[in-house]
Amino acid sequence: MAKILIIDDxxxxxxxxxxxxxxxxxxxxxxxxxxxxxxxxxxxDFDLVFLDVKMPDGNGLDVLPTIQASPSNPEVIIMTGFGDxxxxxxxxxxxxxxxxxxxxxxxxxxxxxxxxxxYRKEKKEADLQRKPVRLxxxxxxxxxxxxxxxxxxxxxxxxxxxxxxxxxxTGTGKELFARAVYENSLRSKENxxxxxxxxxxxxxxxxxxxxxxxxxxxxxDRSQNGLVRQAHKGTLFLDEVGExxxxxxxxxxxxxxxxxxxxVGSNKEVESEFRLIAATNRDLDAMVKSxxxxxxxxxxxxxFIIELPPLRERRDDIKELARxxxxxxxxxxxxxxxxxxxxxxxxxxSYPWPGNVRELVNTLERSLTTARFDxxxxxxxxxxxxxxxxxxxxxxxxxxxxxxxxxxxxxxGSLPKLQEYRDEIYAKAEKKYLQELMEVTGKxxxxxxxxxxxxxxxxxxxxxxxxxxxxx
Length: 472
Fold this sequence. Notes:
It contains 19 helices and 16 strands. By secondary structure, the chain is α/β, with parallel strands linked by helices. The chain folds into three domains: 3-129, Rossmann fold (3-Layer(aba) Sandwich), CATH 3.40.50; 145-309, Rossmann fold (3-Layer(aba) Sandwich), CATH 3.40.50; 315-465, Helicase, Ruva Protein, domain 3, CATH 1.10.8.60.
């Protein structure tokens, strides 16, 4: 007998689903608001939650991670009265069991209910049989639902030998997660070989990857194994795989299929039985459409996908990240541990962090240098461009609120969707930040990379996207 929570503001829908649940000999509980549903999920154990999208006190998709993170970790079936492909994509990527439009048949909802409960039962049985293993996650700090979902994927990936494809913005920690997969896998005692595709010189890329024989080209005074051979029986990590030259993609596809290759200047093939982890911050599907990346290689790369969230989507982790890295730097520089003022933490929480965790860590190190002999960190210890942007955003928000309060109430339907509004605000903040970054650094690219925490290729990409010139 399972316990089912129904979160819907329509009494008829609650009654219909409750009847269906009871007929299946399960227990049904209803909530008419999101707030009531969240409280129930936090205080009672539920196996499954039916969650409506359009509720009087918010959007069900926004609280989906909160429901999933409740103590019983229930499966969630999203329901909506209107078809929304973007909402369906968000729900599925967030781990919802199903996404169903209202007007469903009894057969359809019954099948989804039974399959979700069957999956949950089998999962519990498997968990009881599995020996608990502590996941190695060095330097991966945080406990937010978004981060925990990624760590669950790491644990799943570590148990197999499938190719792993890690996506995420610059600075989200793709290499840390690649190492976590490796450290928890059966190959952890073998080599972990990192290939930074952005730094491969086109004239030597084949030699660096596949090795060469003595005399195969000018300067080849001895034979040398390439990076692919060094990863034999271990793990090969292709960082920023989107930068892999088109001329080499076909050769690498064959290596993935056959695990054999021919070093430069050799007439014999060499074997390398490795596990591949690839990562990128680029949209490889768009690159396939534009002819910049091979579709067959992309299909081969993304057998198992881990999508890392940007820091702005896991703000709950910022305080923990700040404490961890400040303590680490204090130990490194032989300093007494520093305290945080509430205003310092609030500024960290209010900033959008376009460079993600990497930018946060660089900022904390810089702040510690500024506050070397002070006991407590205050906003004045943060870089000026961060304080200025946060303050401007606060003033703009106050002006907007004041303007809206002086206007009549908006008509129903005139408000954008919450995600669209967030995206619009973030896009404006990102462009403003980049404009100030170029102004502060005098368009000095290395200095701009240092301040923002972005790689040079990523900085160029976001400047181009925002139509900001990087040269006078």
